[in-house]
Amino acid sequence: xxxxxxxxxxxxxxxxxxxxxxxxxxxxxxxxxxxxxxxxxxxxxxxxxxxxxxxxxxxxxxxxxxxxxxxxxxxxxxxxxxxxxxxxxxxxxxxxxxxxxxxxxxxxxxxxxxxxxxxxxxxxxxxxxxxxxxxxxxxxxxxxxxxxxxxxxxxxxxxxxxxxxxxxxxxxxxxxxxxxxxxxxxxxxxxxxxxxxxxxxxxxxxxxxxxxxxxxxxxxxxxxxxxxxxxxxxxxxxxxxxxxxxxxxxxxxxxxxxxxxxxxxxxxxxxxxxxxx
Amino acid sequence: xxxxxxxxxxxxxxxxxxxxxxxxxxxxxxxxxxxxxxxxxxxxxxxxxxxxxxxxxxxxxxxxxxxxxxxxxxxxxxxxxxxxxxxxxxxxxxxxxxxxxxxxxxxxxxxxxxxxxxxxxxxxxxxxxxxxxxxxxxxxxxxxxxxxxxxxxxxxxxxxxxxxxxxxxxxxxxxxxxxxxxxxxxxxxxxxxxxxxxxxxxxxxxxxxxxxxxxxxxxxxxxxxxxxxxxxxx
Lengths: 277, 234
Hints:
Largest sheet of chain A: none
Distance between the termini of chain B: 46 Å
Structural class of chain A: mainly alpha
CATH superfamily of chain B: MetI-like
Order of helices and strands of chain A: HHHHHHHHHHHH
Strand content of chain B: under 5%
Number of helices of chain A: 12
Strand content of chain A: under 5%
Number of helices of chain B: 10
Oligomer: heterodimer
Number of domains of chain A: 2
Largest sheet of chain B: none
Helix content of chain B: over 70%
CATH topology of chain B: MetI-like fold
Order of helices and strands of chain B: HHHHHHHHHH
Shape of chain A: globular
Number of domains of chain B: 1
Radius of gyration of chain A: 24 Å
CATH topology of the largest domain in chain A: MetI-like fold
Distance between the termini of chain A: 45 Å
């Protein structure tokens, strides 16, 4: 008994050390964001801000293009998520409930497209979008994001729909409900959690996306917030780390909130999709 | 240059995937053994790490490893692991890519750990208990009882990680710095971006793209086939 307790104490200590190491970068970002410049650039690091200040956050919020780029990101994300959700819901219903010609090919494409390295598609997409005047336009970026969000949403939603017992829908139809009626009254409410989870994933991936936004949007004030953040480093000679960490914190907040909301879901339905940076 | 870049990218991918999978699985096994509150704390920490947007993580990494007063140099020196005063972590191509590896592995561990942890709950308890009664050692139990149950999940995670890390762009491009991308530290994605896009040589860039897509397509076969089987079985 005592030996077992000693063992579990060791495991717990290991777990806590691991926690400290993994979370340290997040802690350091927050700590720097709230510290005064004298503490940020001191010889011995100051762990916890002595006199917390919001001045770095003020600098970040007032930096040129912050608000326009946040607005751009929000537009891109909302439109992408909205369109992806509607289209992928119907596609997922079709895949889950009906047999049709080319179904297998469709599934292969849905899974396969998620595997493509994005950098490999930059040049062809740039050329095609350029031909139609969609370079340096938010619509072009939305189109690109849709090509990545759709396969993921279709595949995940399909899994959710398959999880609903067929009898429920059939029972409603036996009771005199039309196919559409059964669809709206039975299927839709049951699939709602799946719709929430997939839209959150589509939200996170489009909010975080960098490669395409960086390539397709090149004039200031027309970019997304991740591109804005990436430029915060190089521009001026004096690197204001306080402001960069404050801006980083602000940009992470929406993602962290959504991640905590759906964390449980990812742990189980995860193998379906590709959600990572 | 293509072959050198390909070779470098393969080594980079193997290192990243190996570290991610081994560390991620070990942490998942640790999660099973700790007290509930430690597990909860660790899970929240992992989700926080997972939620960091890559561009944000790059900024934090740059700040932590800056040579002037980076906190990493300070901590390593304080721990008496050597003299890291004003140590430059981005001196050689190898050290630059090693820093990219630490960043990518750190960001990828939560995904692997949480998925493997979920899969671990599928391991039948009775089997482990029976093995313990029969006097099997921890390693034997892991190898003969736990691992076979985990295998399908590990296979999917490994193939996903290979595909992701082979195509890594944001981290190497931004952490090493857009202006510091040179042939000696190119990874595949960066190579085709700088050569094709930066130098507006679209034909050359497209050719590299096709070769890269072909390589990834071959690597994806395992994953796609497995997912197809999952899809058809349901």
